[in-house]
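SAMPLE LOG
Freezer: B-3
Tube label: C17
Construct: single chain, 1988 aa
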Amino acid sequence: MGNSYAGQLRTTRFEEVLHNSIEASLRSNIVVPRPVFSQLYLEAEQPLAHNGRTENDDEDDEDGSESNSPPIPYQMKPPPEGCCTTDGYCQAGRDLRLSSLASDSLDVLPGFMLIGLKSPALPENLLVGAVDHRFLPDERGHNALLGFSGYCMGCGEKGFRYFTDFANHINLKLSTQPKKQKHLKFHLYRNNQGVLVKGAPICWRGHGKIDGRIRQLSSSLPEAHATSDEQSTSGALMHSSHTPSSYAAASHANGAPQISDTPHSLTNGIHAASSVAQTVINHSGPGRPSATGLQTNAGPPKKRHKGWSPESSSSSGLLENTGKVAPSSSVLPSSTVSANGARLDASATTSSSQRSLTTHSPSGLSVAVPDQLLHTCGLQPVIFKGHGPLPQLTGNFSEVLVSSLLQSCYLSSQTLPRVYQHYGPSPIQPLSTEMQILLTVYYLVQLGPEQVPLIEDLEQIFMRSWRESHLSEIRQNQQPQIPATQGRHYGIEAPPALPGLPQHLGLAPQQPLTPSQLPWLAQLAASSCGEGVVVLGEQVGSLAQGLQQMFRKLMEGRFENTNYIVVIVTASGHETQSCVVVTGKHQCRALAENMFSPNEGLREINHQLSSGDAQELIQFCSSLGQEGDMDSLLDSATLDSNEPSPLSSSQESTEEKTVKNTHSPKDSHSPKDRVLPPKETCSEYAVEWRDIRPIQLAVARKLLSHVCAIADSSTQNLDLVSFDRVNFLILVPPSEVTFQQTVLHLWSSGVLRELGSVEQDCVSQREAERYVVKMDQSAQVRVDSLIQEAHSNSYTLYILVHDHAHWDVSSASYCNTDTGLGLVDQLLNSRQVRDAPNILILHVTSFPFALQTQFTRISPYNEIHWPSSFSNDVDLYHERTRYFGVSELLESTRSGSSLPLMRCDSSFESMASSLEERFPKLHSAVIRTTVLIHHYCTALMAVSGRIGGSHNLHKHTSVETLGIVQALLSAAQQCPAHHGHMILLRIPSLALAAWAHRRLSRVRRQLGLEESFEIILGNPSQPLNVGHSFIDQIKLWLKIQESDWVPRTYLELEALPCILILSGAEPQGESLPRSLKYCDLRVVSCSYLQRTTLEQELGLAAYLLKAESRSPHNTGPGSDLLESDAEKLSSTDNEEEEGQENESSPVSSNQPLQSSPDVGALDPSPTQSSTSTSPDAPKCTVDTTPSPSRAQTQFPSQSSSQSFIYHQPSLHHPSQSIAHTYSLSQPIFQQQILSQNQLLAQTNSQPYFQTLPPHQVSHPPTQSLAPVRPRRHPSKSTSSSSSSPRASSPHLSCSWARGVSRPPSVLLPRSLYDIITANDGSGLPRCTSFLPHMSVAWASSFRPLLSKMMTCTEQSLYYRQWTVPRPYHMDSSNRTEGRSDNFHPRRLLLSGPPQVGKTGAYLHFLGILSRMLIRLMEVDIYNEEDINLNVQFDGVHYKPPNALWPDPDVMKTLPFDYIVHDPKYDDISLVYCPGYRPASDANTVHQEEVCLRRRTTRIKLSKYAAFNTYHHCEQCHLYLGFNPRYQIYESTLHAFTFTHLLLGEEIQLYFIIPKSKEHYFSFNQPGGQLEGMRLPLAADRSPNCIKSPIFTPTTGRHEHGLFNLYHAMDGAAHLHILVVKEYEMAVYKKYWPNHILLVLPPVFNGAGIGAAHFLIKELSYHNLELERSRRQEGSGPISDVWPFIILADDSCVMWNVVDFDARNGPVEHAASLKQVLQHMEGCPDLAHYGLCGIRKWSSRVLAGPNQRKPFSRGHVHDFLLLNVDRSQNIQYDQNRFTCHDIDFTLRLHSAGLLVCRFNNFSVMKKQIAIGGYRTFIIKTKMTDVPTSVGPSQYVCAPDSKHLFLATPAQLLLEKYLQHTSHKLFPLSTKNYEHPVLSVDCYINLGPEVTVCFVSSRPHAVNICTTGLLFSGLLLCFADAFVTPSFLKKFSFLKGATLCVISADRSSLRQTVGRLELEEEWRFRLSDEFQTANAKEDRPLFFLTGKHI
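STRUCTURE (predicted):
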């Protein structure tokens, strides 16, 4: 039905395919069977004709089948009635023709593509449709999903799952069965004019297209089958990840190997079919967000996978073994070249790009490798397979290495990605075979004699050539291809010409390069380099003949000066073939060592050391020529010094004895300088690594915000509010120092005390070790224990911190348990951790690249990048330090005015190179380490002064090494406390490091320097070992008293003069102290060139510099080059910094060269300090920035002022009377100022002159000596500009203190230095274009380069798009887990530069996360004392204080307290009460100030608290209807109507009642109409039920209102109704779907709280009458219906009860709302009370006088128990906005009803800043936005032109009276004795005016006013009870103010006349006012007058 592939079952091939499948499956070690039948579909078997294939031919071919039977007739489904059937239109009548839609704007859904369809009725036009790209084939016609998915571009109808239905909808009107292969013809794209045009045809059959996906081929050879090809697969073109153990990469992650047809190679523009075996491409799932970058081919797993073609079966027979090979070290081997979407493993690829791709040579063709090849030539040639099959090597093939890496590069560069097929009708072709070979020759020609070829360079050459050849097509079609939603466009741009590449190859030639032209063009190119590159091509008939000729000439010595031989075969009638043979000795050694995996290389080194192969080298290096043997000189030095250290005649036994007794001499004696007296302490010493820095706080808060974002997301993957504490476990690499370092940081951070994990007094480092675990075999138990604990403690949030996360990314299925690798995958990626809702994983790394692939588990939104601390030289975080990282080191190499901080040692390189030629069988690491240690030993001998004629020893070491040793020995002599520097020697091999440690220790002991410096062996698996004398020094410096304390981390070695030999295959997160001065990396491996490997080695030198003294215009060491941290980039996640570049450098040419007076320091001060350090600011420096010319002219004088003499005070050798002095500023000239003999050793100066800038070479070394001597001898001053007398002498200032302001110098191997300092086409360091990690592979060779303008986020997206994990990567299986996206929802990634402080940041994050969870469990409770408490009552106090219930008779005897004591009413008018005297110092404040200054207290929520919508727990999930994890409850809307006499009309309310709450209501059975609420009887008693309905009026608090009473009610059944306004109904229903909502009428949308309480009370009374009537009809008791309701504020959070039985007096503790209400409802005489309430909580109320009264009469607020029966005649004022409860209580009391407050209960109110009825908005009528309008503008004169306000008139009146009554009632201001008389209502007249409330009702209870003179009269809506005679009872002061308020002007005049007010009050026409409302808004009017 249109869903099959475009191919039919090939029955003729069935047997062959089946046979091949069975045979391969039997050979394979993979259990999963290979697909058989899928191979028989869509095989592109027919070769392409020379002229291509026409469109009609393709169509005709698809119509037919292999049988000659006629086509089956097909009847289309009849269209629906009334629909459109016109051709070119859909059934909805919308035009689909391309000509009509070409200019229209069409919105295409993500994942869909515009396709042109052919209709038989419209041959001249195309129809436009949208089809899911997963159901379309790739460029070879494969990988299309079965079926169809599309939608109509006309009417937009979606959901077409069958092409038949889609064809019917678009009116194709076919006579045959619709097939998508036949009618989906063309891709559509928009041209430069934005017009939709026809693009490339859809390739259903695979003809004429280049394969974009190269499948992986698993091994079909038995494991024992090992030929020369098996070795050849390990060959490498010095690739960044090439190792032979990467066989594992050839296994598919699923275990099911896949093969596809190979890309067609291009020969003169003609396609030729071929086959290739490469790694499978893995694509992201369809749910990947767009933030991850452009997707290659997202889609779910396909139903049918492609198998292998018969052509590939021949090649599969000889492929190398690609079974699972578990990586055996922390550095996983991986040798790959990118193929589109996959990484081609060099050990698994032996195929070529020709038609017959077989690794076997044709029958009878083989090449015999000559015997004695290695012995004769001194090298082991490396043969790189190129194009065509390599002949089989026979004979002595073990001395030849064969690699397929070059061949893989050729294949990947010919594999065009799919995106380039959509660039229009003109095809974009890959490079031809001939062009690839010619470009390879040009690349080899431009290489230097010592350079090793890099596959990345050659790959970029291919890409640049291809881009330039198709630049016009790419630019023309580039813009419309990338949608704007994809973020920054990593487009392909034309890069600049490659250096060394001829300009005529900048663009592809117009005519194709023919095979006949290739040999002579290649020879022409090779002729430019002499004999360096030789091309064999003109008379070579086959590769076998060419290789035979090459071997013959090589044995004859004719290729002695040749590095590369290129064999080219261009036989007529055959495809072009080629291979490259490397014959350069240096290149062959490098490539051969590169074929070792890191583990294999270390094993080879160990073998050479243990077998004695290196002994000859060691003896050779020990010889010093004419000076004699090193050991004999050391022996003589030992005997001369009279030290009791007998030497053994055997070097090995001596070294072993030295190791065993290293510290015995130190323990046997105590030198004078070991215990320093107090006067010799160093005041400049300070350890700051314990401090938390501002940027670390910012990163911690950033981490917290990401965690909160996960919790706030709609996915509900993290429920923060359900956790009450934090627990954590930190996982670190298996390094003892890293483990102890993390423990130390954890212990000193205080996080454990903050989390409450341990007691504050007993916390120790031992206690902290429980929270850190090394990732070894013990980690399994610890993590399993945490998982079990997490399952049992669901209220604890567990954080798994994976520190140094890039260290182990191995898949557990590919690793042996013995290696320790794969534990991270096994533990952190387990299902238990993934599914645990309370476990969050935080990966922390400096190199996140391995975790940023297409199948990463970390969302790009969950990445946190370390921010840049400086922007435009502005310190964003006020740091005292500035980070100096890899980019700053690189920047120092580009300045010409000073010695760069990162450099190479030419003398060392020369000696190492000569010895590599002398010892060709030894590993280069053995040779380089031996030479390096020899240099250090010789330098120690030369500097110590113990060796006679030591000046002659200088030529046996390098100036760099000599300067390092000089600085090490001299630094401690300048400080009274003997502070010094650390020298880091990085030796990856443990065996070599141990040997180096023994050798250096022996030399140190024999020279008597054991007390001068320490030598430490840094073994990752062993703890730190430091001598006792040095431990005593450290304890003295750190002021440690513990006798058994020993340093466990390198950080604790701060200021200790030492040599640290750091071993291990790679650093494992060890932090180094700031006393690190030199980072010697001269023996690190140059074989594994990945970005992570390089940057983590350079990261050892990362440093934090002092930043206080930076000048504003000097950027100092800052730089914005690309790096793996924020400062590598020109902008970071601070997006506003993007595009800003920092051009200055720490040693730039516009800064003077200045350095410290450290002896032998070869590097200048990067902070350019010109003043010495002062005691007050020991690490501050002063920057100066003269012009470049000035800096150059000052160079000699500066060097002279920075030279001093190193003395050996305890030794006096005759030849050392004057010590050697080294210039610090001109080490590049290697001047060595020696003794009075003026000896200048310049032995090794020549190599340095070759690397100097011209202006430096021009100065002879002798010129700088002139100013040195006269300035040095008289004063011995260290600096001419020193202002500190302390710093004028080296012995009076601490060299360490000066050193912490300078980053360390880094020494690199020459090869690494050249690579790192070179830039690529984008201006970034060349190493950034390397493969990011060994465990990942490039997704395509056609990737763009990293951009210099990328932020860290964009860099992450780049790697997420362009890298895929290898099969042994732990993320390789992530794509198969079946989720819509592959991201773990609770996984974060923190990345930052090395040594920047990430540990402190995430530890602080743990602390603030814990505090936040505590705060989430805490709320701000109003904690205010009652106001106006100095009332003196003479009445009776209620006794006893612990009475349970009030007695009505006793309560009547208590006086009513008119005074309002609630602090929230601190800004209202006092209510006059006889006997009360206000405080004279009472401050008058405004209400806004009260809200701002109200006192609150943080209190943890009890288990009986009320919660808002953010609370989620399993117990109260019924309140969470909006949560997608729970059911959304159904509710119905019911209308309820009743008549109220006061309103004079019917009131219609609406109830929204969930189905689960309908039992609380009564309905008439027939129609289901709501009749009322069911009320219980007063006599009902139920221990688990609350009888009173709870009404909570609320507005604006749908999220923050405390409506979840489940915990507060302690499970009791209750009726809770939310009273909301009509316009908020929908949002409250959304957030609280399981709550009953009472919706107020629309007329009350703008009303205040008074209206809500009014309607609640009236509705409740009406419902009470209805319930009584219903019960009367049922013959039930009438008066027994429960008449009480509860009016609760929406901010009541907790309730408390006073316990009088406590030992220490009354104690208040939490109580449930159920307990409070059941106690109040259980009061025997409750029906006698009209209103009850409880006290508002305050922490000081128990100590107050009111606590002695358990009950009182007075005002109650916020939580009321109202008797609607007894209070039926007293209503709330529906118009009131403020003080409505005070007004209601006063009127209730005046009516004679009892008001009782239960003082033994209290309610806590939460501070909620959002919403509420106290939020008033004053806005104008015109703008409808809040405006700043003063209270005086709230009223105006009637009929005046005034600015009308869109605010209720009542609110304007209340606010006006509150703020201006001191002017309206001038006699009442601060006059408590003469209050304002207010009749029948209470209105707030402001805090300065006192109001006396009286009721005009008959028999009302009023205060006695006899003899009281009032200062004013307020009549507000006076009713008939107010009469003239009533008013004449009161006396007024002369001039008292009258204010009469009415609804309109007529009623105002009527009131004045009816009450005869004009008799005693004088009125003026100007005294009439109205509220500032328009007439339609019904303003209020009031009249003022004066008493006569």
